[in-house]
Amino acid sequence: MFGIPLWAHRGYSGRYPENTMVAFAAAVEAGAAGIECDVRMTKDGHFVILHDAYVDRTTNGQGPISEMTLAEVQQLDAGSWFGEAFVGMPVTTLSSLVAYVKRCPQLVVNLEWKVSLADPARLQRAMGVLERAGIWKQVIHSSFDTQTLQAIRRAHRDANVALLTEEEQASPDGLEVAAQLGAMAIHPHYRRVTQRYVQRAHQLGLRVHPYTVDNPKAIAWLEDCGVDAVITNWPRFDLP
């Protein structure tokens, strides 16, 4: 349908509960070239895939993920909020995600770090999960936090990092910051992308992967602008 790669935002989140393994597997089955997901950390230092700081919206629990142990998180139901067909879906751990990704060697995995990795010990634990799985080259590390991206790049010069920018912050300044970080890409809100923006990004050696685009006409327009991939909730575009 489109000539550019589509990355599934939190998995196939248009049809499945976001950031669950069923959503990621469905995205791959739908032909997504990549998946995007969010990484947070539990009270006892384990990495889990969850967008919000609080578990309330996407599980049957309450409270901040940072104040729960992994054992407590594993008791949560991360599917019933979306529909009866998904009752009992667990919160995905980073370890379980990378084990799945290891079986999909062509899949791009965009990990958006919602937890700061400026702490060296925390950074080492996080990167160790990926290195042990052997999926390092498949991973793009994205964040709004420049300190996290700097920490990743200092420790791992071969890491692929991407700067996320808010809709109101997507500007030429954001491109310069990304280039200074040694980023391989910038992830702007799609409404701020223009052909000129993409041209400037490419001049700086940056790929452009806008988020979150659920309108086929908008994707066609972004393709005309020259973006390198698009992040969407609907990788098959079977919107209701």
TrEMBL record:
Pfam families: GDPD. It comes from the Bacteria. One of its GO terms (molecular function) is phosphoric diester hydrolase activity. GO terms for biological process: lipid metabolic process. This is Uncharacterized protein. It comes from Alicyclobacillus acidoterrestris (strain ATCC 49025 / DSM 3922 / CIP 106132 / NCIMB 13137 / GD3B).
